[in-house]
## 1
Amino acid sequence: MIDETHDRNVTSWVAGADIHEDFPVQNLPLGIFSSGGSEPRAGAAIGDYVFDLPHAFALLEPMAEAACNALRGQTSLNAFMSLTAAERRNFRRAVFRVLTDPGFEEEASKSLVAADDCVMRLPIDIRDYTDFYAGIHHARNVGSLLRPENPLLPNYKFIPVGYHGRSSSIRVSGADVTRPRGQIRPNPDEPPVVEPCRRLDYEVELGIWVGGRSALGAPVPISKARDHIAGLSLLNDWSARDIQAWEYQPLGPFLAKNFATTISPWIITAEALEPFRAAPLRRPEGDPAPLEYLVDDADQEAGAYDIRVEVFLRTHEMAKSGDAATLLGSVRATDLYWTPAQMVAHHTVNGCDIAAGDLMGTGTISGAGESEKGSMMELSCGGRREIVLPNGETRTFLEDGDEVTMTGWAERAGFRRIGFGRCGATIKKS
């Protein structure tokens, strides 16, 4: 799957693209944007610009005819994600050719829009949303706080645990998050009360965008699951820990999770991520082997993605003083216990159908180290330990006016680093 679009030595005629830490021509992530009051439409990020794809269709056809037809007149990428992997790959190669061949510069430059002049939209009309719990270090850390005697429940190492999330409250980076209200029980000896959440948290995740379609009643075998992974984004699964603690038994997350989810606006395609596939987390000796439907040799060799994600906090006081955001944690997606293909295979083993427009969260990514925590729940030991910020402020959970930002990237020797852009939001008082 490695081709000329991954060649680190190929350069683009677009000014600044070759030194851009996120969007060199080897990336070409896809999103939906508008500019100057225009209708939303598809674009590809290249350096500090957005390549207006409908404006450039004439340059991309006939090599990318199927993809151009899927994008024509569309305000989402759903139809594009329904294409075959081969059709999506042809489109990537066509865009790459136009942005690297100087012979196209005069005409194609007319389709470049400065990124600062663009408003990014949700890239997909989200059909459905499932959130997994594949970060074993996070599961163990949180489980130790809630159930010290039994941090991981018996099913964790047998099935990719997940729950059905809420697609209607997913927003693109930059949209504020209103502090949720709900039932909490601060005092176990008194009845619950309804008030604003006191223990608001973030969770560092990757969002997996589904491609193609499967039939209802027909499980997707793990050997074919990779064909249904069209791309990835950053995902922040906001969590109201006090609401969650009261409501989660016996059926799990509900109001503690469905008030907001933030995603980065750019979809990093599976094709762009090919050089950064990696072996999944090695299971410790004594862990049970996955059941047969979750095992595939190719997936065990390179079914994970070597992606680094960092999370930053900037308080209202820091913003007023002009202080930079402070790094809270840095995690790697190779620390996930289950691969994306295993998540797809398990999601469909009962016959559940999936289709373009579906989003799957990986679950919170944490590592084994103290600086590799993917949530404040872990950093503050469930609120028992204060996090001291550079300006002297302290936090156990998020306060109104706090801005949380995630950035992510993939890099490997011999290939150009590619990034995910920004996934951020500010907490607004309820």
## 2
Amino acid sequence: MEQVQCRNIRHSYDGVRDAVTDLDLAVRRGEVLALIGPNGAGKSTTLRVFATLQRPDSGSVLWDGADAWEDRFQIRRRIGFLGDGTALYPTMTAAGYLRFFAECYGQDDATARRRVGDTLAMFDLTSKAEVAISELSKGMRQRLAIARTMVHEPELLLLDEPADGLDPLARRQLRDILREVAGKGVGIVVSSHILRELDGFCDTVALIQKGKLEVHGSVEDVIEDYDVGRRLHEVHVTRGLQKAIEVLRKHEGLVEGLAPLHKGEPEPDPTTGDRGIVKVRIHGVEERAAHLLRELVLSDVEVIALSKVRSDLEDVYQSMGRDEVS
């Protein structure tokens, strides 16, 4: 696989309203594409169309330029798909579940054993290999469901809300795993509501609203094109931390958090601390930051830096202000 493309896709479930309309979207070999949008916007339908599990009313899915529907049963062997729900079998063991799917994909005994072992290790489930799925925690079941999508070494990976049920550490591990998999040339599409998890992890972003693709491009380009007036800044304070927080709030700065000035220093206490980094949202034009810096200095706060942190995907999404569903 070099590229999979949805071309002019339109699909309706009731014949009245379109779930997706005029959708043109491609995912390339080794690319991680973030698919974002509100509930009901058409994300899950898009994934099912990519996976050849849903035949659209019009349009086509092309694998390297060839119609995928005509060869869908062979194409599906090259896809790893995580849909809505984990589709686990509670009486199976974790290893038995993965082996079952490895055999469904036609792997011989030796290959299946190797892939099951490798995949369990990848998702830190080796110690749970012979444990019944019903006895696994929610997070472990979710990791096993994702592992199942990779056991046959697919060329295209389609994941609908893969981080659901995962704790912060497991989410970081998942990002690392997916980046490693993409590095081997696998195309990946991730649909998620956790936009901060996607920023800095995905290569490309596609925003779907009301069944239509409204924004598509590299993450960096999209953030630059849709940079917003609600900006995050970092204020580095060496003296007068409490006064700095007071001044920022007085001038409509939204303080989001504190961080130590240097690695190894303790987390600053907003009631007793005197130094630290204040993370603050500054609304309005760029000159507002300069105004706030002046106010801080006049209030006898020692500031060694005030720097803008780039907008993120969540900023872009909120700036569009239209949670429209089909």
## 3
Amino acid sequence: MKELTLFGFNNLTKSLSFSLYKLHHITEQETCYNQYIKSRYNADNLNRLLTNICHAIGGSVLNVAKQDYQPQGASVTLMISEEMPEEPITKALAEALVAHLDKSHLCIHTYPEESPQDNIAIFRADIELSTCGIISPLKVLDHVIEIFDADVIDIDYRIRGMTRNKEGKKLFNIDQMENISEFLSESVIKDYAIKEYNLPRQNLFHTKLRRKNITLANHLIEYKGNNLSIDDQVQVEINLANEIQQLFTSETA
């Protein structure tokens, strides 16, 4: 896609948000789900994840706030800039840069289900990335989807404000996009069913994705072939498929 020449600073604010759902089947012998969530999605690991996302879009981390919760769950927020400052980051410098950058930020919150139903636990992670300037949040779509390996994904993208081209004409969307899926890789499009709900004139874009195929090994914390009979495996896959479809359509049976 050809880049537009803008006049001065790009004043558009671009906000990208994800709700990612991952389902796990909990057997009667399964006692480590909470430990699994805590070890995989604790604040330190999420901080590393967000830092990688920040670098993937060409940004630098200015400041980090993170917190683990009891009995489980975590939150991390990063203040980011578009280029690495030459001098070391101090608290005063970080505050000055954050003010100048109009609060570009990246954050994540996790919501593990505390009371699984029918032996299925639903884990949700929400990620929000808001930037101004030349950074495009859409660059991280495939990276986030790959990292979380989610079963159902809600993606929202909103553009606010305006900028101008070199002739002074107002621009309200420099990506010239119609759908979020235009920025997804071929492998993601192959693996997921996709629905689009957009208001392009208002610069509001919404996409929902559902994994097409279920592999039971991806939904058990410690998968062993002899944990479930063949009939039980088939039933668990049916139950997972029903839960995933309900999350995808926002409708219960």
